[in-house]
Amino acid sequence: MDLMSNQASQHFNKGVQHLATSLQLDGSNDLFLFFYLKLLLASGSYTKARDSARKFVRANPKQPNGYRYLLQIYHRHFKDSPEWVQLAEKLLVIDPVCDEELALRPLVQHYESLSDSVGDNVDTPCALRIMRVLAARIDYDKGGPWIWKQLALCLRSVNANHDGADEDIWKDRRGWWFGWCFLQTNSAKVTLSEGSENVLYKLICAFYIFRESFPFLSLPKMYGITAQSTSTALLDKFGISKHAFLESKARQGNQAFAHTARYVTGTATQPTQEDVEDALSMFWGSLKDEICGEAPAHPGFVEERATLMSEETWSKTNADTTARQPPPSPIPIGQTFSRHIQPPMQQSDERPRKKRRTKGF
Questions:
Q1: How confident is the model at residue 7 (pLDDT cuts 50, 70, 90)?
Q2: What is the pLDDT of residues 239-265, one digit of tens each?
């Protein structure tokens, strides 16, 4: 047994030496680092493993695996060290969709611990830091129940204390987050039976993000949420009345679309025809059933749709543009196509002559 133990110890030491040499020869190979750290941790050399991972991260600042290995070492063996916070922030920049348990959740919990508030309330500076981290994650991943719940709680805290302090976070995201996060399609229908509270947290986030334009989006109706299925206790927790949450304003003309487009696209100037068309395409998710005849259309919707894209509306919104060219006239009935379609070119057996080279141009 002693002989076998000595041989195993020799092989182990040689393996550590070979991997250390390999890292010296190729300092960017994260595969060498992975096995090298495993051997060091197995032997209890935690400090040496941490220092080796630090060296790799400094030499390869854009390599996400180095941050992952180093964060795991900190979480397991150096929990009291604050250095992991900066590493987690850098990892989320390099890899926004990394494992939640590795960087995102510990970072959010760390920010919450810095808050002076008690309970679910978070003070504004900490809430804004959490919101920026969560929003950056949702930019690449639509987010799960925990992310939307945390975001809803932070939105409540910020809007209760300093209304509009988070405007810079949502100004550019309003234009595309609706289609990315909130637009509900028939192919991916989320029913309340799959978690009504999770759906409500997500729509509460939309209530705070879109603000004045939220009633025009008809999101509760899109998700099949009614007054009977809505949790009044949860809405009361956020200080939102059921009427304001379920309200769906009637769309009575292109001015309503233009008003909504200003908030959706984040433009502060007078909305243009492009803004109105963006709002129309955004509302398509809630109106497609009506257009296809699966649900009764809103009063005046057909007339509104025709008025919006009429020639008069186009001329008002594009007065400074050139007039559109009329479409080409159709081929008169009774005439052949020979006058309108050119015959194919005749094929020739002769090879094309090479052009003579000339000096200059």
A1: low
A2: 898 888 988 775 544 444 444 444 444
Question: Amino acid identity, residue 256?
Answer: A
| The model scores a pTM over 0.90 | no
Residues 6+ apart with CB under 8 A from 21: none
SS3 track for 227-296: CCCCCHHHHHHCCCCHHHHHCCCCCCCHHHHHHHHHHHHCCCCCCCHHHHHHHHHHHHHHHHHHHCCCCC
Judged against a pLDDT cut of 80, whether residue 172 lies above it is answered with: yes
Q: Are 33 and 65 in contact (CB under 8 A)?
A: yes
Question: Which amino acid is residue 263, in one-letter code?
Answer: Y
Query: Is the Cβ–Cβ distance between 110 and 133 less than 8 Å?
Result: no
Q: How far apart are CA 283 and CA 101, in angstroms?
A: 36
Phi, psi of 313 (to 5 degrees): -65, -40
What is the distance between the alpha carbons of residues 56 and 50, in angstroms, rounded to a whole number? 10
Question: For the residues of 40-89, what is the DSSP string, one character each?
Answer: HHHTT-HHHHHHHHHHHHHH-TT-HHHHHHHHHHHHHH-TT-THHHHHHH
As a whole number of angstroms, the distance between CA 290 and CA 288 comes to 5
CA gap 115, 359 in Å, rounded: 77
Instruction: Provide CB contacts within 8 A for 99, sequence distance 6+.
Output: none
Handedness of CA 155, 157, 160, 161 (dihedral sign): negative
Distance between CA atoms of residues 21 and 19, nearest Å: 5
> In whole angstroms, what is the distance from residue 162 CA to residue 143 CA?
26
- Predicted confidence (pLDDT) per residue in 76-125, tens digit: 999 999 999 999 999 999 999 999 999 999 999 999 998 876 666 788 88
Single-letter residue type at 92? L
